[in-house]
Input
Amino acid sequence: MPDDLVINTDIKGITLFKRGKVRDIYSLGDNLLFIATDRISAFDVVLPNGIPNKGRVLTQISSYWFKQMEDIIPNHLISMRVEDYPEICLPYKRLLEGRSMLVKNAEPLPVECVVRGYLAGSGYREYQETGSICGIKLSPGLLEGAELEEPIFTPATKAEEGHDINITVEKMKEIIGADLAERLTTISLDIYKKAQDIAEQKGIIIADTKFEFGLQEGELLLIDELLTPDSSRFWPKEDYKPGRSQKSFDKQFVRDYLLSLDWDKTPPAPILPEEVVRKTSEKYLEALKRLTG
Output
């Protein structure tokens, strides 16, 4: 296990606000400290192994995309320079460097904004059963991995445990109000289309992704992570072929390995072999390299 592999964090003197599947979030009053660990989850279970460099990759990719999307919507990122953090964080500089963000403490909206440009995952399974996704009717006869005529917006409700639940836009309007729902739909599609254009020039297809938004003093902000291999399906453009499962830069490689085992997708998860850990780390690093150079 590499020396700088970070599975859990313990920042003395700061309140741990939330420990997610990957991120440890600390409260700093008006602001939050996001730390992306090297934990990896699959089927909503955190695995015992970490993936070297994963937290740093997620942080750098999110930072890259936040900057790209500033003309569409402001985001919660204040700084990634540890020197800009409160003094209490400075003793942890080695831990925090490259894998942390000082962010505004926005109130997260209770919906996730999913945009799909290709037919994959739960969207493909729903399409096979109903011919539609989240109430949006699609053309018949589409293959797994097929590119959709236009990207579609398919919101979901957030689940503290287990899978998020796909909902219709109408249901989303009931939850957060029609005006805000329509605004999020437009912004989400705009971000996705811009990201897709940028990524394709770098040999990556973004098949689908999810965004999170929050409110701070009435201002709508893009929050959490953005267009990372954890929140998106990244496919290498040169290997893309509809009608089959695609090669990917995300954790699909880990999922495929776990599916080959006799494991019921409940804790405790099996330990990943060194080869799977190494290859997964390489896929994350390749995504970062392609996007940011």
